[in-house]
Amino acid sequence: MSTTLDHATGTTSTPTASSALARPDAGAGALAGDAGDAPRTYVVKTLGCQMNVHDSEHMAGMLEQAGYVAAGPEQAAAEDADVVVINTCAVRENAADKLYGNLGRLAGTKRQRPGGMQIAVGGCLAQKDRAGIVERAPWVDVVFGTHNLDVLPALLERARHNASAQVEIEESLQVFPSTLPTRRESVYAGWVSISVGCNNTCTFCIVPHLRGKERDRRPGEILAEVEALVATGAIEVTLLGQNVNSYGVGFGDRGAFAKLLRAVGAVEGLERVRFTSPHPAAFTDDVIAAMAETPAVMPSLHMPLQSGSDRVLRAMRRSYRSERFLGILDRVRAHIPDAAITTDIIVGFPGETDDDFEDTLRVVEAARFSSAFTFQYSQRPGTPAADLPDQLPKAVVQERYERLVALQERICAEENRAQVGRTVEVLVSEGGGRKDDATRRLSGRAADNRLVHLALPDGLAPAAAPRPGDLVTVQVTHGAPHHLVADSALAGGAFVVRRTRAGDAWESRTASDGHAHSGAGACGSPAGPAGPVSLGMPTLGTR
User: Fold this and answer.
1) Contact at 8 Å (CB) between 481 and 416?
2) Closest Cα to residue 245, out of 212, 279, 222, 271?
């Protein structure tokens, strides 16, 4: 069921058949303006995980199908667009603060912008808070949920026509997101959703409530999307799901994920396959074998630990224990010695004792994660853990968090220093390093997903410089906690550029979007086309 809220009356109603929204394919091209008008511009801003980033690509795709155009880089940075969409997260402690901070800033922009602006809020927090968003921020025009991304263009048009806020939240998935139009953030790498929702019942997590039960796509549909991505220039694909290694349960094949990895890895022209995130309880040896035996599957693995205490894992309803977790890592490294393993860890879960926390430190020391996302537990309304006794004082959680971060920082530094001297192949990214202009470096990801900043040789002609999407072989010269430096080119060492179809595709899209191409140049890449703007957590990092 969906609801609509009217600004003027503050009431909610369920649309009848006569008032229900038409889907975007029903004349949607006319929604962005009347004939002869300049197309309306949009910006999509993303808070949260990779699933949200991919959903934002669908939002952008639907807006473009409806006749909107992406705001240019400067306009996007200034939030100067006819439509600003915020795709929200409800998992992190400060999710609501981030949303309302953004909305407060946009209220002023909306008042000052000639011709006005529409503000839309979607994603997990929209699914959770619903009409409460408009009650708290009455300048918001549209609120839509995780189960009905497809209605965004029509809701915007109805809000304009009715001059009132439109809130539509569905209780179950209406259209599988992967069937929707997509405006890919990158032409050389793409996300492919293999499932939506989650069947787990972790007590700290609200995702199953907001995303629903797991629904798997058929393998043929996934392979068709991967092949279509490769045909447009992509050489890297990341398979997405709330729990990717449970893929196939819906159609009765518990070995489906390993088979899918092999099949995707065999797609001609695809060079890198990644996936996120698996669940330790369902992670099986056939997946390890598929990773080890499929050259295109990269030696990187995100394996969420959450806690090293068996007692806390039980309270979290995480159906594995620390010994099993470490056993998985041992088997992965036995088959894939160079694998880089990352994780998620929560500190301060209700009832966590000093001994429990020491168990977490012990497991982290043994696991040797290349990176970790570390979080302080916070009560999330709607989760079972929010009502548990023995909620810990903030000062205790903070002290433990700082100790954990210090330990993981040391391990990150040690593991990255051990990479010095290795030869790595880096997929050059667009705008991958904040200091690239100043340091005259480019940035990208090695096969194990470590961030690498690489120097260009002196005197390299701009036309010969690597483009985003090209692959560069270099030698690591320095390891820092969160990145590697590969300055081998400056001393006449390894520096081999392999120009790829992905680089060609990036160059073609850059030219068609009106940006001059300078071979990515010594000062970094030119600004790419405007599209979804990610404000969420990076691919790797320690928090």
Assistant:
1) yes
2) 279
pLDDT level of residue 49 (50, 70, 90 thresholds):
confident
Per the structure block, which two tokens stand in for 127? Answer: 């699914």
* Degrees, nearest 5: CA angle 384-2-123: 55
What value, to the nearest 5°, has the Cα angle with vertex 409 and ends 406 and 414?
Answer: 130
Contact 319, 279 (CB under 8 A): no
| Burial letters 279-302, b for 16+ CB under 10 A, else e | bbbbbeebbbebbbebebbbbbbb
The strand pairing partners of 373, in sequence order, are 344
> What's this model's pTM, rounded to 2 decimal places?
0.79
Residue 523 known to bind ligand: no
Residues 6+ apart with CB under 8 A from 264: 222, 223, 226, 237, 239, 270, 273, 296
CA neighbor of 543 nearest in space, from 431, 438, 422, 402: 402
- The reply, when asked if residue 202 is annotated as ligand binding, is yes
Are β-strands 471-475 and 423-428 bridged in parallel, bridged antiparallel, or unpaired? antiparallel
Query: How many helices, marked H, and strands, marked E, lie in the chain?
Result: 16, 24
352-399 confidence digits (pLDDT tens): 999 999 999 999 999 999 999 999 998 887 889 999 999 999 999 999
Burial annotation 206-242 (CB, 10 A radius, 16+ → b, else e) = bbbebbbebebbebeebbebbeebbeebbbbbbbbbb
124 known member of a binding site: yes
- pLDDT (average), residues 108-116: 86
Rounded to the nearest 5 percent, the helix, strand and coil shares of the chain are: 35, 20, 45
Question: Angle at Cα 392 formed by Cα 98 and Cα 101, nearest 5°?
Answer: 10
pLDDT of amino acid 210: 78
